[in-house]
Structures are given as C-alpha cells and as structure tokens.
Amino acid sequence: MTATRLPSWLRVAAPVAVGLLGLGAWFAYVASGSAPRMLPDPAAILGEGVQRFPLIVEAAAITGTNALVGLVAGTVLAVALAALAATWRPVDGMTAPLVAALAVVPIVAITPILNTMFGASSQFGRAAVAAIAAFVPVFVNTLRGLRQTRPVQRDLFRATAASGAQTFRLLTLPNALPYLLTGVRVAASLAVISALVAEYFGGPSDGIGTAIATYAKSGRAALAWAFVGGGIVIGLVFFLVTSLLERAVARRLGAGRPPA
Amino acid sequence: MTAPAVHAAGVGKVFPSTGGEVTALTGVDLDVAAGEFVSLIGPSGCGKSTLLRLIADLDTPSAGDLAIFGKAARQARIDQDYGIAFQQAGLLPWRTVAANIALPLELHRWSRARRDARVAELAELVGLSEFVGRYPDQLSGGMQQRVAIARSLAASPQLLLMDEPFGALDEMTRERLQTELARIAAETGAAVVFVTHSIPEAVFLSRPGRPRDEALRESPEYFTRVTAVREALHGAPLQRANER
Amino acid sequence: MTDQALAPGSVTSIVPDDGGMPRGRRPRGVGIGRVGWGVAGVAAVVAVWELYKLLGPADGVTVGGDGSAGSGVILLPRTHDRAMPHMWDMVARMFAPTSGGDTPPLIVSVLEAAGTTLGLAALGWVIGVVVGGILGIVMQRWRLVEWGLLPWIVVSQIVPLIAFAPVVNALGNQIDRAGVFPWPQWFSVALIASYLAFFPVAIGMLRGLEAPDALHLDLFHAGAAGWWSTLIHLRLPAAVPHLLPALRLAAASAVVGAVVAEVSIGLRGGIGRMLIQLAGQASSDPAAPWAPTFGTVAIGLVAAAGVALIGATLHRFRRGEEIR
Does a structural domain hold residue B126? Predict the structure, then answer.
C-alpha cells in the first residue's frame, strides 16, 4: 500500500497539464463543428475580451466595488458582533441560531426586496447582500478566534495581575487575528459571488452579472463568456489579496495554532 | 524442527531524509524460537521499533535477510502469521469493543458465527467480557490496550509483535497488564517480540521457566537480573539514530 | 456553532475541515436552550424593524443626493408602508389570495413553488454528492489525479462559477432544440445546482479519506487488508466527520444554485420566478414579495435540516470527534 514516490515537479506539471488538456479538448470540440453556438472557441472569447476590454473593466469595477463595500461592511459588523458575543452570553445565544440560519439560506433571495426598499437604481441592495454573505464567515471565525486563548495562557495573565484591557490587547487580540483574517479570506470569495449573483435579481442594469445575462440571452456567446472571464478575474484578485494578507499576519503572529 | 519465529541475519535499514541518510539499523542478527518471549530493550532512537516494523513488513530492510517462520516477511503478513499491538491502542472509535476485536477476522471474511465465538473467547481471555458492547471512548487507557491485545490475538497467531504497548499507561495498570500478557503468552504458546524501554518490564516478561506473577517482582533474583541488564546497557556504547 | 470556522493557514480548503456539526452541548446561558434563544433573536429583529418604522425618519437617510429622485445613496430606507410593510401586514398578506379573487392564498402558492425548487435543489445535491464523492475517492486512490485536479477544484470554489448559469441555460436550450436529447428547462436548474454542490463534496471526501492516522493505516496494512477493504472499513468511516460539513455546504450551494438558475431561466413554478415577479409588483402590493422570500429561507432551512438528519443517522461515526 506504500505509494511509489512521485517526483515533486509533477505537483505543478499535473494541474497545468490538465488545464492544457481541457483547453485542447475545448478547441477540438468547437473545431469539430458539433459544439452548440453557446460554446465558442477560446480564441473568439479572448478576441472579444480584448476588443471590449473597457466595457468589461467598467462592469467589473461596479461588481468589484459592490463586493468590496460588502466585504468591508460585513467584516466590521461581524467583528463588532463577535466581540459582543464573546463577552455576553445573551448576545451569543441570540446570534448563534440566526447566523447558523444565515449560513444555509440563499441570501441573494432578498435582493429584490432590498431593491424595493432602497430604490431600483441603487447599488445598495447588491452591496448589502455581499455584506451579509461576508458577515457569516468573518463572524464565525472571529468568534472562534476570540475563544481560542488556552487556559494556561489566561492563567499566566491572571497571575501577573494584567488588566482586562491588557489581556485583550496582548493575548486575545493576537490570538484572534489569524482567525479573523482566515474568515476575511473566505468572505472575500463569497462577497464577489454574492455581488455578482445579486445582479441577476434586478436593480441597475450595470455590472458583470447583468452583462452576462443580457449577452447570453441575446446569443452573443463569446461576449457573454468574456464577461464570465471578467468575473473570474475579480474573484481571483480578491482571493489573492486576502490570502496574502492572511499569510503575512499569520507568519508574524505564529499562525495561531497552539504547539502540538 | 520447526522454523524459528523470526530469523534476522545482517539486517540493516537506512532512511532517506532531508539532511542526508539516516542509518537506523546495521548488521542486526536475531533468532526468536517458536514460543520464545524476547524483549528488545534500549533507549529511544536505537532502532528497536524500526526492527519490529521490518518484522511486521510495515517497512522493508535495506540489507540482510529476514524470515518469519521460514517465509518472507511480506508472505507472513499476507498469511497473517502474526498479530501486532502498538503503544496507542488504535481502536476505531466507531466500532464497539467486540467489533474492534473482530476487525482482523472481518478483513479475512470469517463467517459471523465463527467471529462471534472467537470474540467471546478473546474478551474472556483479556477480562473484558462485560464490556464488549461499549465504545472505545467509554473505556480507560488500560482497557483500550487490553482490547488491542485481544485484537492482536484474533487469528490465533503464533507470533506477537508488541511496540511498547504499555508505554502510555500508569505504573499500576502497567504491572497488571504485564502479568496478564505473560499469562496469555504462556497459554497460547505464541512467540513474542516485545519492544520496551523499561528494564524492569523486559526482565519481568522475558523470564523463562519461573511463573511470572507478582511474587516474582519482589524476588532477589529479579533485582539481580535487573541490575545486570542495566549495567550491560550502560556499559555498551550508545549510538542513537540522530546522533550518528 | 464553530463548525464553519477554519484553522488559520488551511489554505486549500474552503470547506471547513475541522469536524462536523454542532458539537456537544456547550452550556448556553440560563438553560433556555437553542430554540429559545433563536426565537429571542428573531423577536429582536422584528422589534428593531418595527421600532425603526416607528421612530425612523420618514424619508430615510440619503447621503450625497440633491433631493431629486434616484440621486445619492440611500443608507436607511423610508419608513413608509410601501417601502417597509409592517411585519403583521406581511403575515396577513400570506393568507390573502395570491392574485385576487378565487386564487388560493399566497402561502399555498409559495409552498408549491418552494416545493418545486426544493425538489430540483435536492436532485442537484444528489447528483453533486455522487459525482463529488466518486471524484474524491478517485483522487485519494491516485495521487497524480489529485495533483492534477485538486488545484482546479479549489479555484472553482473561489471564482463565481454561478456566472455560468445563463450560459448553461442557453446551452441547454440549444441542445434541446437541436434534438440531440431532450433537455427540459428544469434539468438545467438541477444541473447548475449539482455543479455548485459537487466541489465541496469532492474536497471534503478527499480530506476525509486521508484523515485516518498512520497508526490505523499500519494496523490495516499489518492485517493484510487491500485498498478496497481499507476504504470500506477505515477511510470511509473516518471520512464522515469531514463529509458532513461538506454535505451541508453542498446543500446550501445547491439551493442557491437552484434559485439563481430559476431566475436566469425564468422557470415556471419555481420560487425564483415568483421572487422576481412579485418584486416587480411591489409598488402596488408591497407585502407580497416577502412571502416568497420567507419561502426561500424555509427551503434553505429544510435542506440544512435534511443534512442534519443524515448526520444524526451517522452519529456512530462521529464518536471521538474532538471538541474544540
């Protein structure tokens, strides 16, 4: 059952090979002429992408801004509420079931109502949905981080007669920070996805999502896919930035894991 | 004459590692006759667990010959000629005590009736008949280790391999289980290769002839032997794997 | 409720891999119990809503506008009944006829539509779980497959895959019209749902199958157990605590996928379409859009409850889960 050792360069080569294979299969399928019109070849998509670049960037800016606003707002709210929940049992008791419910329901479904409440020409609905989507992972992770101080460390601070504020600043906060940033990393992707999907539910006719829907319906396949590509790029950018932030802080603070 | 339980000649094992190679064993010769109780004793890092793993075919030797009951280690493993127990009991948490003991038998497709009968026998042998329906998280460390021993005996092997099975237990439980193991080994007639870093444990268990009971621990002969072994160990030049 | 928290640095897994569902009973306040606190929380939300309606500025709070319609950013909504109906109006509306006259009460229509959507989400979930599970097993069996596919699977969790929904629908329509094989619209919905559900399951299954410690693997190897035996008796049982959060995430994803797909497609009978339709009539019937919204929330909760039920039947395999 001992597996033969695979050379480590395969770790990089394998996914690249799979990607190239997939791309090749796509090209071949389209070239064979049997592909439906909605599936153009990658070159056409790239062509449209380059041609319409300003349009895509403009739409991406809208969706990206909504996602960013949502991410920031959701994070701020989540950290505040997590701090309250870690301190007062009643808050914890009330928020736990609500957050658990939020985690499993399709949050984007409230977009139509938000658009009614805040006006159909406002981006607020989309940003709000992104905020709620971002809130959940940040809240859960931050709360866990705030509870993560080990008893032996708490005893140490108590034995040296540290004040509550000092304990918070020197023990609880550094312990919680890596967890918080992990939550932000997860929330970033969710915020992008939610901001994009919310556009399918109405509101202003801008943004990546509405563009995809419009062009898909009107049969302009390559353009629709080019906008899909734009959405993917936003998602990757958000992930990379928050991931780097998470790693940078984790390294400085010793990654939050208690030594084995 | 039956083949010896274990026959090792010139066995060596080298591990590749990030800083070059690590030589865990060189030129090991060992003969364990059928029914014999042999303790491998030494400080941590001296390679005793490695040797046990080679016997169990959990690793392959880099040099030398290794025969278990005259066969290659791999064949002995496939034929299930040995049972093994580790320092951690390693019980599967989702199985009851009975199901854990029966695991080797299930893997070898024994019929349900045969399995149940054997499990009852073994549970009685290790004194856990009333606990067969419990789950591991409901047992103490000593009891879990007894289940592990029962499991290692499931297919009535003629060779038992034990890697510091009592190392994680407190002294009182340890002594009790040593007596039990001695009794079980005597009753089943199995050969045992027992890895330990405790001199008193090794001396107690590897004592041929005399009944191995609590009285033995207080006898002057026992203490003399312990001293002899200790001196032999301290006198020998020590080379741990990571210091070579 | 820390089952969605991740250990910092667990980069490759968006699926929380630290264990299963609500662990143990952490002492929760004055013994009111989870349900009690949940009710209190909902009551608090209702209270905030009604208090705002009572005390908030009639025209809401707008930032940076010049007074004309549609300018500036509305930060707090207007308290008028058309923008923010009373909670009791929302409830009452649910029991009034759907579209006047003899039509059944709105709640009935919502329940029917919710049932349809839930069914499609469930179908998508099953497909996603089966495909994801098999992929997880294949990736565990052959390391090369894992190295080749896992990075793509992880990336797909990060990017808004749901962006493909309108495209998949258009594709499906084309295939259907071309007569290659029948592709009813609801199948597009289920397919999109399964597409979203499959990724967390693949990752969760892989993590779970690799979870057993070296000790157990040695024991099985020493017991001369082959790959299949080890899979059935060790890896799969050990995978359960990792699979359950993945199954829950897959259920939530399948529900979102189904609703979004319905909206893109405009599927008749689905709750997505009802959401958009009633929102469009919100100026004349402000309390109506809340009904399908509650219905959608209910779908999510039912899906989660379903997975919880599965978790309960598998409780034997969750013994010895670490309580962190």
Answer: yes
- Tell me how many domains chain B contains: 2
Establish if B39 belongs to a structural domain. yes
Q: Within this chain, do residues C182 and C227 fall inside the same structural domain, yes or no?
A: yes
> Looking at B108, B126, B156, which one is the last position of a domain?
B156
- Dihedral (Cα; C106, C112, C115, C116), 10-degree rounding: -120
Which of A213, A237, A202 lies closest to A109 in space, CA to CA?
A: A202
Instruction: Say if the Cβ atoms of C4 and A140 lie within 8 Å.
Output: yes
Q: What is the pLDDT of residues C266-307, one digit of tens each?
A: 888 899 999 988 888 888 888 888 999 999 999 999 999 999
Mean pLDDT in residue range A108-128: 87
Q: Which chains touch A (3 or more CB pairs under 8 A)?
A: C
Q: Mark yes or no for CB contact A92/C144 under 8 Å.
A: no
Q: Are residues B229 and B187 in the same domain?
A: yes
On whether both C80 and C111 belong to a single domain, the answer is no
Contacts of B80 in chain C (CB under 8 A): 223-224
Q: Of chain C residues 204-243, which have a CB less than 8 A from chain A?
A: 217, 221, 227, 230
Domains delineated in chain A: 44-256 (1.10.3720.10)
Measured in angstroms, the CA of A77 and the nearest CA of chain C are apart by 15
Query: Which residues of C, range 253-272, sit inside 8 Å of B by Cβ?
Result: none
Q: Enumerate the residues of chain C whose CB falls inside 8 A of the CB of residue B90.
A: 215-216, 219
Measured between CA atoms, the residue of chain C closest to residue A100 is C1
Q: Is residue B234 part of a domain?
A: yes
Do the domain assignments include residue C97?
no
> Which residue does chain A place closest to C32, by CA atoms?
A93
**B126 and B98 part of one domain:** yes
The pLDDT of residue A162 is above 90 = no
Asked whether the predicted pLDDT for residue C18 surpasses 50, the reply is no
CA distance C177 to C183: 9
Least confident of B192-206, C28-42, C75-89, C145-159: C28-42
Instruction: Give me the number of domains chain C comprises.
Output: 2
Three-state helix/strand/coil letters over chain C: CCCCCCCCCCCCCCCCCCCCCCCCCCCCCCCCHHHHHHHHHHHHHHHHHHHHHHHCCCCCEEECCCCCCCCCEEEECCCCCCCCCCHHHHHHHHHCECCCCCCCEHHHHHHHHHHHHHHHHHHHHHHHHHHHHHHHHHHHHCHHHHHHHHHHHHHHHHCCHHHHHHHHHHHHHHHHHHCCCCCCHHHHHHHHHHHHHHHHHHHHHHHHHCCCCHHHHHHHHHCCCCHHHHHHHHHHHHHHHHHHHHHHHHHHHHHHHHHHHHHHHCCCCCHHHHHHHHHHCCCCCCCCCHHHHHHHHHHHHHHHHHHHHHHHHCHHHHCCCCCC
Residues C80 and C218 in one domain: no
What is the pLDDT, as a whole number, of residue C21? Answer: 35
**pLDDT value at C187 more than 70:** yes
Candidates B57, B108, B135; nearest CB to C319: B135
Interchain CB distance below 8 Å, B90 and C215: yes
Indicate which CATH number applies to the domain containing B49. 3.40.50.300
Q: Which domain holds residue B114?
A: 90-156
Task: Tell me the ipTM for this assembly.
Answer: 0.85
Structural domain including C269 reads: 106-318
Contacts of C318 in chain B (CB under 8 A): 94
